[in-house]
Amino acid sequence: SIFQTVIEKPISDRHQMLTQYCGDDTELRREVEALLSGDESDDFLQAPIKDVARSLPMPNADAYIGRKIGPYHLINLLGQGGMGAVYLAERADTEYYRQVALKVVKRGLDSNFVLKRFRRERQILATLEHPNIAQLLDGGSTDDGLPYFVMEYIAGQPLNQYCHERQLGLTERLQLFLQICSAVQYAHQKLVVHRDLK
Fold first, then answer.
1. What sign for the dihedral angle of Cα 57, 61, 62, 67?
2. Could you confirm whether 25 is annotated as catalytic?
3. Mean pLDDT per segment of 10 residues, for the chain of length 198 residues?
4. pLDDT value, residue 2
């Protein structure tokens, strides 16, 4: 989490942030510095680009609703994250019909650094095949050059809400937790570590 916080900041601010977050823990600081040195972004160019991108007004994600990306028609917004927005979409061409979740990079964050991370995320998802991990189905770029990927759409609800509404007991909750752990363990075995796992 320290790496994720610090990597988004200009190099000139990182030394002070590492001192603040790591304190006297030299081993922790060495680990974070090793991660930072392994990052391939060119901060000389990326920092000014990211600063400008942050200052731009973000377009309304709802503007994509009704738009067609590849063979997919976007129906509504499912959620937004730091890099992109996820839409409920449907493939409605002459090939077949299917509802999917489509994630696209946010306009304004389409620097080489972000695009590279997004494409890396898409490639990682392509390698994961587990019953408790949504499957990657498709990917590409929009007409204006933004990468997207398409995943299996699973209609659901937050886990805590699911448990509460069904008044699940401890045993049932632990059975669900074991399914989640199975998916996380599978990802870890593939050397994938999610930095925002809740």
1. positive
2. no
3. 79 85 88 74 53 51 81 90 84 82 74 70 80 86 83 89 94 94 88 69
4. 83
Question: One of 24, 143, 144, 196 is an active-site residue; which one?
Answer: 196
Task: Round to whole Å and give the CA distance between 155 and 75.
Answer: 14
pLDDT at residue 172, rounded to an integer: 96
Query: Rounded to an integer, what distance in angstroms lies between the CA atom of residue 96 and that of residue 67?
Result: 19
Give the residue among 84, 55, 87 at the shortest CA–CA distance from 69: 87
Query: What token pair was written down for 176?
Result: 């669900």
In a 13 Å sphere around the CA of 163, the CA atoms on its Cβ side amount to: 13
CA distance 64 to 73: 10
Threshold 0.70, pTM exceeds: no
**Structural element, H or E, at residue 89:** strand 84-92
* Beta-bridge partners for 151: 101, 136
d(CA 135, CA 54): 31
pLDDT score of 179:
93
